[in-house]
Amino acid sequence: MSGIRRINPRRPFRITPEGIRRIVLGEEGDAGDITLSPVARAASKPLRLVGEATATLLVVAHSDRGALDAPAREAIAAAAILADPATAVLVLVLGDLAEELGPFGADRILVVPECGNGAFLPDLEVSVLSDAIDRFQPRHVLMPDSPTGTGDLSRRVAAALDAEIATHVVELKPDSVACYRQGGTLLARRGLPRFILLDPSAIDAALPFRGAGERLDYAAHAVAPGLYRDLGLKPVAGAALPLEEADFIVAAGNGVRDVPTLEAVADLFGAAIGASRVAVDDGRFPRDKQVGATGKTVQASVYMAIGISGAVQHLQGIRACRHVIAINNDASAPIARRADLTIVADAQAVMQALLEETSRRNWRVTDALEEAADG
Amino acid sequence: MDSWQLRIAVLVSIGRNPVSGAARPNRNDLLALELARKAGGEVTILHAGDPNKPALADYLAYSAAPLEIIPLPGGQDIVPALAARLQGFHLILTGSRTEGGEASGMLPYALAKCLGLPIVAQALDLAVTEGQAEVTQFLPKGQRRRVMVRLPAIIAVHQMAPLAPRYSHLRRVSGQSVTLPAPALTESASTAWRTEPARKPVVLKAAEKKSGHARMAAAITSESKGGTLVTDGTPAEKAQAILAYLRSHRLIEF
User: Does some domain include residue B200?
Assistant: First the structure.
């Protein structure tokens, strides 16, 4: 050795948008351009579980329209972080499932389509969860503490099994859980109990690895009708809901001048109406419709931003929205980076087209509501 | 007039003012009390704990019902004591969560298991018919669910129930509270908890070993999903693209 540090001239590199070759520091391997698309980068994450699993952590979650919500993903991520390399993360999905759970950290998946879809089936769900606990003997059962979903189910099961439970957990560590006491003035801590109910945002759901995402067979079993009878959901008019509670929001920005057409589009989807700050300042919408940093923070499943460019303050207000659809003249507007679907067109023309394309359908939200009110 | 008389027990706890920390009636339990008053029938208010708390008398001001107190020192399990007193009631109403104390929301479930009764949580409204109760349940996203449950049953009231409890000083001074004989003591099982002063909780993150370049790249690019961009086509085709997206994610039903 001569004492001179030798550098491989063919180290991995990437080509910048300006066409300049940049060496990638810290990256090992063969020479070449390693620029990857985000999709390829996600797929290249290593598997967490190596070899045969000897233990199990169970995560329970309700699905909504075939997908899991953010608190459910956080619970899966929490289990994947807690699990050692020989422990599998088993996810019990109550409701149907149409998405891959491997990228969220799930190794094995049990799907029970009979539950879910807003049905109240405590007897069936309790028996399904008790069976899963019997069959897999998980060390811990993690789930989001949603008041009506898994929060209700796990309290029933924990009471029935007389098991240790920690509810409203705000801090999870590999060896302890913590939750607030005395109205938030104290933090109570203990070792990991059997049931762990996580409050939202206690976990960072981003993982550097992925789970195997293998689906297990599940044979459904019938449960005798118990003391409960579900009479079904009451339909609600989206327009009558406060924005924070609405599931579908049609929001207007500076690009919308024709408010009656916007109201017709909102009526078409049974959606609540929101607005950006500019549209509210112009006096086209009342102040309580404003979405964003100085307005309301919304949690809709669908947020349709019509003629909204998407200032940072506005995007703050829609951070928790699941599907964002943008209709905008400008393809380079910031909303296009946030949106799942961006339509580059004049807002007025697309709104008219939406109304025309759906004018021949035979089902209307308002009719369904009137029918429910009559019956 | 039938001889069947609906008997309702409302379980109440000592609440805590979120700003001053002063003891007060628990908002959730007041809603349960108001719901019991609305349902009609013979209401009994029941509290297990220190009988000398002045905040307890405030419950009398919200209802004409008598207040019964099971004297129990702190650190004792209240479930067996409550269960012994709750025999013979058709409906047991309570708030969904205490404001002070453990606030785990487990009490109605533990009672339901102990008494072998059905439980419906997150109730917004209640209508009692012969031997059954129809409960309107709160669901997120503005949805409401109706559930029929056979009596006797335990019902935990949601904090957003559209009810307005009314304070009356006359009821407060004329109302009666009875301290029941002290029950046998059962040490509370949850000794695993240690308390510490509250602070901001630490978010659990996966440990990640990243190369310098990956860290730099993560700082300037967010992990965006890369949404679809539709630029070409007539407005009708673009409208169809929106509808197709909504249909493929099962967000609309037409």
Answer: no
Domain that holds residue B232: 212-248
- Identify the H or E element spanning B56: helix B55-61
Final residue of a structural domain among B137, B161, B179? B179
pLDDT tens digit string along A321-357?
889 999 999 888 889 888 999 999 999 999 999 998 8
The ipTM of this complex is 0.87
To the nearest whole Å, the CA of A338 is away from the closest chain B CA by 7
**In total, how many domains does chain B have?**
2
**Is A226's CB within 8 Å of B118's CB?**
yes
Of residues A27, A120, A203, nearest to B203 (C-beta): A203
Angstrom distance (rounded) from CA B147 to CA B134: 6
Name the minimum distance, in Å, from the CA of A344 to any CA of chain B.
5
DSSP string for A157-175: HHHHHT--EEEEE-EEETT
* Residue with token string 């209508």: B127
Question: Taking CB atoms and an 8 Å limit, are A183 and B144 in contact across chains?
Answer: no
C-alpha to C-alpha distance for A167 and B162, rounded to whole angstroms: 26
The answer to whether the Cβ–Cβ distance between A350 and B241 falls below 8 Å is no
Asked whether residue B193 is domain-assigned, the answer is no
pTM (two decimals): 0.81
Distances from the Cα of A79 to the Cα of A51, A137, A281, B26, B57, angstroms: 18, 15, 46, 35, 46
Q: What is the pLDDT of residues B134-154, one digit of tens each?
A: 999 998 877 889 999 998 999
Q: Can you list the residues of chain A whose pLDDT is less than 70? A: 1, 26-44, 238, 361-375
- Say if residues B91 and B97 touch (Cβ distance below 8 Å): no
Give the Å distances, CA to CA, from A175 to A20, A83, A189, A344, B202.
48, 11, 10, 51, 14
The domain that holds B155 is classified in CATH as 3.40.50.620
Residues 6+ apart with CB under 8 A from A183: B16, B18, B21, B99, B100, B103
Q: What domains does chain A contain, in order, with CATH numbers?
A: 1-35 (no CATH), 55-215 (3.40.50.620), 238-374 (3.40.50.1220)
Q: Nearest Cβ partner of A353 from B153, B211, B235?
A: B235
Looking at beta carbons, which residues of chain A come within 8 Å of B136? 234
The answer to whether the Cβ–Cβ distance between A158 and B142 falls below 8 Å is: no
Q: Which of B126, B157, B179 is the last residue of a domain?
A: B179
Are A182 and B101 a contacting pair at CB < 8 A? yes
Hey, is the C-beta of B131 within 8 angstroms of any chain A C-beta? no
Q: Which of A118, A178, A185 is closest, CB to CB, to B139?
A: A118
Interface size, chain A vs chain B, as Cβ–Cβ contacts under 8 Å: 270
Q: Which of A161, A343, A361 to mutate to test the interface with B (most CBs of B within 10 A)?
A: A343
Predicted pLDDT at A262: 93
